[in-house]
Write a structure and sequence with these properties.
CATH class: Alpha Beta
Strand content: 25-35%
Radius of gyration: 19 Å
Mean pLDDT: 93
Protein name: Metallo-beta-lactamase domain-containing protein
Structural class: alpha+beta
Helix content: 10-25%
Keywords: Metal-binding
Strand order of the largest sheet: 1-2-3-6-8-9
CATH superfamily: Ribonuclease Z/Hydroxyacylglutathione hydrolase-like
GO molecular function, one term: sulfur dioxygenase activity
Number of strands: 18
Domain Metallo-beta-lactamase: 14-208
CATH topology: Metallo-beta-lactamase, Chain A
Order of helices and strands: EEEEEHEEHEHEEEEEHEEHHHEEE
Largest sheet: 6 strands, mixed
InterPro entries: Metallo-B-lactamas (IPR001279), Mito_Persulfide_Diox (IPR051682), POD-like_MBL-fold (IPR044528), RibonucZ/Hydroxyglut_hydro (IPR036866)
C-alpha cells in the first residue's frame, strides 16, 4: 500500500512540508510544518501551518503524528501550534515525534540560550529509536536515523518513499551543511549512502529546495527525485564520489557559510518542540539574540529581541 502525499513549499525558508495519509483509514502524519516568522518586525503568523490544516479538514484526515526530521535551524516549527489547533477542534492528543538524539541538541542549545529545564521536559511526545517502526493507519512506517547534518536527523520510510529531512538535497543542490554542533561530514556521507542503497525507484522527499537562480538552470521547487536519479546526478555524491572527496568539499564549503538568517530564534523555539519561551514582557515572548561586540565599544553582549 502506498500513502497519499500532499506537498507544500514555504518559499522564504525553502522548506518542504508534507502530509502523508493512509488511503484506507484516512489517518495522517504531518512532517516538518513551518511557522512564518518575519525577523524585520519580530512577528509570527501561522499562514503556512493553517494551509496544512485546511488540507486536513478538506480531506477529512485524522492526524495521528506530527513528525520532525530534526531540530531545524532555519525556520520555526509549527508542531506545537498544529498540535494545539487540532486539540481545540476535537482531535485526540497528537504526539510530536523526533529522533532520540534530540536530547543532545537540547542540551547544547539550552545551555547556549539559557532555556530552563522545565521548558524542555515533554517538549516531544515520542522519541524514535533508530529503525523503529510505527503506524499511520494501515501503513507501517520506519524511522531512519540519518545523522551528519545534525546528530538528531531522522528520515521516515513510508511505502516506497523516504522523507529525508536535510540528509540529502535535490541533485543540483547536493547536500546540507555539517557545521552545526554534532554535525559531521563523514557521518553524513554514510547516511546519504544508506539512502542511496534503497531500490532505484524509491522516492526521496527532501526537507528543502533551493532552485538555481541562473536563468539557464532555472526550475520550479521540486519535492522529490528517485534514488536512481540521485545516484546518477547528485553533484556532491554521485557513485564515483569517495568519502574523502565529500568530506574535503563539504568542509571547505561549510567554512565559508554564514549562519542561517534566523538560527537563534529557530533553535530557541524548536528545542522546545515549537513552544514559545516562558519569559515574557508586556505579552511578548523573549528570545536571546547574541551580538558580537568589539572590546571597548559596549559592555553588554546580548540584545533581547521581542516576538509578538
Amino acid at each position: 500500500m502506498q500513502p497519499i502525499i500532499h506537498t507544500s513549499f514555504e518559499p522564504k525558508t525553502g522548506t518542504w512540508q508534507y502530509i502523508v495519509a493512509c488511503p484506507t483509514t484516512r489517518e495522517a502524519a504531518i512532517i516538518d510544518p513551518v511557522l512564518d516568522y518575519e525577523p524585520a518586525v519580530f512577528t509570527i503568523t501561522s499562514r503556512s501551518a493553517d494551509a496544512l490544516l485546511c488540507i486536513i479538514r478538506e480531506k477529512d484526515y485524522t492526524v495521528t503524528w506530527i513528525l520532525e526530521t530534526h531540530v531545524h535551524g532555519d525556520h520555526l516549527t509549527a508542531a506545537y501550534y498544529i498540535q494545539r489547533a487540532l486539540w481545540k477542534n476535537g482531535h485526540p492528543y497528537v504526539p510530536i515525534a523526533i529522533g532520540e538524539n534530540v536530547t543532545y541538541t537540547q542540551k547544547v542549545f539550552s545551555s547556549r540560550y539559557n532555556v530552563p529545564e522545565e521548558e524542555l521536559q515533554n517538549a516531544f511526545g515520542h522519541l524514535f529509536g533508530s529503525d523503529e517502526e510505527f503506524q499511520i493507519g494501515n501503513l507501517t512506517a520506519t524511522a531512519l536515523h540519518l545523522p551528519g547534518h545534525t546528530p538528531d536527523q531522522m528520515g521516515y520510510l513510508i511505502g516506497e518513499n523516504i522523507f529525508t529531512g536535510d540528509s540529502i538535497l535535490n541533485p543540483d543542490v547536493g547536500s546540507a551543511r555539517c557545521d552545526f554542533p554534532g554535525g559531521d561530514a563523514r557521518v553524513l556521507f554514510t547516511s546519504i549512502k544508506r539512502l542511496l542503497s534503497f531500490p532505484p525507484n524509491t522516492r526521496l522527499y527532501t526537507g528543502h529546495d533551493y532552485p538555481p537562480a541562473n536563468e539557464a538552470a532555472a526550475r520550479d521547487p521540486t519535492p522529490c527525485v528517485t534514488v536512481g536519479e540521485q545516484n546518477e546526478m547528485n553533484k556532491h555524491i554521485k557513485n564515483s564520489a569517495s568519502a574523502d572527496d565529500f568530506v574535503r568539499w563539504r568542509t571547505e564549503r561549510d567554512n565559508v557559510l554564514t549562519d542561517p538568517r534566523i538560527v537563534h530564534q529557530a533553535m530557541q523555539v524548536n528545542v522546545r518542540g515549537g513552544k514559545m519561551p516562558g519569559r515574557s514582557h508586556d505579552g511578548k515572548a523573549l528570545l536571546l539574540y547574541p551580538v558580537i561586540v568589539p572590546q571597548g565599544i559596549l559592555t553588554g553582549v546580548v540584545h533581547r529581541s521581542f516576538v509578538r
